[in-house]
Amino acid sequence: VPGKARTQYKAASKAMHAKNPEEAIKQLKLAVAAVPKFADGWNILGSLYEQQGKLMEAKDALQHAIDANPKLAGPYLRLARVSNKLGDFEAAAKNEDALLKIDNRFYPEIYFIQGITRFQKKDLAGAEESLKTAQSRDGAHTLLRAEYVLGMVALARGDVAGAKEHIANYMKSDPTTPDIERIQSQLDSLGKPDAPDFHITLERP
């Protein structure tokens, strides 16, 4: 941590430990104002903004982090995710590619995000490849949602049976997901001519 930003960074860390994101953001803004090239400070600030749903602020902070240190991997992952949430799939793909050039082993989540991006861009084969790579690289099994997105890929291909299988598998593996009831309703309606659009997010809520 740069000397000029150390006091503010320590205050931000204390605020985060106390679960006070507003104070943490305030202190981190002071830290990066004192040291504009403080990449880690920008990265954490962007993460906090994303957690609060302030996506444009997150995007700006994360881009500052990348500009300050293009070799820092974390901001690319977060910026790809934020870009997807903003519907900017070209920006998401750009940041995914950038991260994979820096590190294609340590961040298995990037393949999950890439799968979502490719799905949104109607690249179903690419989406399936990325999602299966995410599953194979995720030793901690934290990317369970990839199975649900694979269901959406199958559905987009018109493979209702395949979609049902993937979605049912996801529900068994992640029964505590907050949208489990909506996913069950979606599963029950698959293949029916009047099936509604449940607007279920591809990322876990």
Task: Describe the structure using short key phrases.
69% helix; 205 residues
Overview of the structural elements:
- The chain has 205 residues and is mainly α.
- Helix content is 69%, strand content 0%.
- The chain is built from eleven helices and no strands.
- It has helices at residues 6-17, 21-34, 39-51, 55-68, 74-85, 89-102, 109-120, 124-137, 145-156, 160-173, 180-189.
- The longest helix is centred in the N-terminal third of the chain and has 14 residues, at 21-34.
- The radius of gyration is 19 Å and the shape is elongated.
- The mean pLDDT is 96.
Number of beta strands: 0
> End-to-end distance, in Å?
33 Å
Sheet with most strands: none
Low-confidence stretches: none
Calculate Rg over CA atoms: 19 Å
> How large is the count of helical segments?
11
What is the strand content?
under 5%
Assembly type of the chains comes to single chain
Order of helices and strands: HHHHHHHHHHH
Helix and strand content put the structural class at mainly alpha
Q: Classify the helix fraction into a percent range.
A: 55-70%
State the shape.
Answer: elongated
Q: What is the average per-residue confidence, as pLDDT, rounded to a whole number?
A: 96
List the helices and strands and how they pair.
Elements: H1 6-17, H2 21-34, H3 39-51, H4 55-68, H5 74-85, H6 89-102, H7 109-120, H8 124-137, H9 145-156, H10 160-173, H11 180-189
Helix pairs in contact: 1-2, 2-3, 3-4, 3-5, 4-5, 5-6, 5-7, 6-7, 7-8, 7-9, 8-9, 9-10, 10-11
